[in-house]
Amino acid sequence: MTKIDYSSEDDFCPEMLIDKSVKIDRTSEQYSNLIEVLSELKTEKIRLYQKVKDDIKAKESDKQIFNMYCRERFRKIISDKKILVNYLLDIEYHTEEHKDDKKDIIWNCYGDVLYDNLCKNVDEGFSPNIRRNAYKTSAQREQEIAESREKVKQEQEELVKVPIAQSVYDYLMDVKTRSGCRNDRYVLYTLYVLIERYKKIR
Cα–Cα distance between 174 and 159 in angstroms, integer? Predict the structure, then answer.
């Protein structure tokens, strides 16, 4: 097997991962939309997708479901994978918003494409076999994940809300406290909210 030799003095060059036939327009609406969506996805909590996994009884892991959701979001902006990956690569490595971030999303979603591009761009031109995931996503499956995600997210938001009657609030705020310990009322109020929230979870 041929070995690719990179000098330790050379910096990593993300351009080695691009498809050179694709031209990138940094002023395009697609480019701006991808920056926005990528930023949003990087704030997502993986535990949300554990709930989605349980809700749809998925065989895939929570991380795999998250990656499937990411790919669907990106595909709605640019459907051509070859063009999409080039745009994401440029955003990940060359924009102020993302250049210092982790690159988990692009590598987990499109690592096979990046690797293929790298092989094509190496002078030696070797192309070893790549082990890919066995399953493929369908439009129906992706829609199911998206709908379940919204359902689970809404349920989690509802759990946070604890309605408090005005009479209860007034009672808590009128509780007699020790001299100089008025904050005890707010501690009592917080405990009440936590107890009510626990009841909703159960």
Answer: 27
